[in-house]
Amino acid sequence: MAETYNGYCVKCKEKRDFEGEIAISKNGMKTAKGPCPVCGTTVNRILGKA
C-alpha cells in the first residue's frame, strides 16, 4: 500500500512528492522510501521512531 510523502531529492535538489512504502531502518526509525517522479532516484523520508 503506497502513500504519498514529501521528501528532498538529492539529485534534483528540490522537495518532491513521491509514492513510498514504509520501511524500518537498521537503527529502528520508520522511513518512507520511494522513487523520485522526475529523475527516478530513491528518495527517503524519516518518519520517526517505530
Automatic annotation (TrEMBL):
Pfam families: DUF5679. Residues 8-46 form the DUF5679 domain. This is DUF5679 domain-containing protein. InterPro entries: DUF5679 (IPR044044).
